[in-house]
Amino acid sequence: MDTLTLVVTALGSVLLLLFLVMKARMHAFLALMLVSIGAGVFSGMPLEKIADTMQKGMGGTLGFLAIVVALGAMFGKVLHETGALDQIAVKLLNRFGEHRAHYALGIAGLVCALPLFFDVAVVLLIGVVFAVARRTGGNVVRLAIPLFAGVAGAAAFLLPGPTPMLLASQMGADFGWMIAIGLAAAIPGMLLAGPLYGNFISKHVTLKLPEDVSEPSLGQNQMPSFGFSLALVLFPLLLVGLKTIAARFVEADTTLYHWLQFIGHPFTAILAACLVAIYGLAIRRGMSSDKVMAVCSAALQPAGIILLVTGAGGVFKQVLVDSGVGPALGNALIGAGLPIALACFVLAAAVRVIQGSATVACLTTVGLVLPVVETLGFSGAQLAALSVCIAGGSIVLSHVNDSGFWLFGKFTGATELQTLKTWSVMETILGTTGAAVGMAAFTMV
């Protein structure tokens, strides 16, 4: 089938996905499965191969992500219930002072959201914004935008977040380089999109203070120290970093090399962090075993829908790859003269604007560029840089088809127009800044 037909099939599939989710109000999982079948049929894929490709896409995505999501959800929930996340936020506020509280909230969002889903992190941390707003009498916009920027920066760029972890896995990127380049992208992106833009836009948009505030289960006297809390959040990152240490400084095929590779795998790192949080923090500080079980179960409940929708996004991605749609569109972009790093950003941004989900935008873009990337022999560090470019494109220009758009409005009480002026612009600044760092890193590593 010719390139034009394949490209039209890809674009038509994304537009159909948009219609089914936004207009027909079909559940995202059903819509993705239906569109995947349609893309396979209209691209000329043999009918007997479509089901196998769908199974391959679902298994290939969830085989890695299901473990990361389940363990990460429990880890983050335990940290919240024991007050560890609260301790980090309060310490930062005390250190920065009320006049620079917007910087403290940006950093708190960036650090505390590391082990959490975006939605979960917002739910758990938004109470800090309201508590600070009550103390300072400040505009909620000035405080909420930095927090959301920090959470969004962590969710988009930083391991062990599910989306960057999935991106690095699908692209075959080096996890150590993903941490380094992700940090280089997230920190300046958060500062520009959060405290700086939040301070500016708060002069033009004012939001009243809502009343709901979430509190940890353990009392104040039972909460861990700031140092221990921060060490727990960073613990899985340090373990994942061992793989990079092994690859750089330890001779390959030695016993030490294999142990460092094993300990530094995301599965092992997040499992170890989860166990330390449960037995070294929650139970030691008086949380009963029954309560821990309830906390872990509650953490897993929302993960099921997230996994199914993400897996369906993997199905769509695999159909694009196996049908030839992905290679055709990727080659068309690169043939048009776009550098590969810029092409990754543009593709992810286009899919993001059309269908809304950052995770689906990432998966779809991987499906479009991976056939081209695999032939060019890039290093693990370069693949990490390209992953950051994709992540940046996947969060720009958020609007009404993005759940984050409505989440921001729901928690802050912002109207749709106010959300466009605040949340949507913030996401665009964050994603563009992060992608620019990824493009620069691609040329240097």
TrEMBL record:
Alphabetized, the UniProt keywords read: Membrane, Transmembrane, Transmembrane helix
Extract the Pfam families matched here.
GntP_permease (PF02447)
For this UniProt entry, which residues form the secretion signal? none
Q: Which residues cross the membrane?
A: 5-22, 28-47, 59-80, 100-133, 140-159, 175-198, 226-250, 262-282, 294-316, 328-351, 358-377, 383-400
What protein is this chain from? Gluconate transporter
Gene name of this polypeptide: gntU
Query: In which organism is this protein found?
Result: Chitinilyticum piscinae
Cell inner membrane among keywords: no
Q: Annotated Gene Ontology MF terms?
A: gluconate transmembrane transporter activity
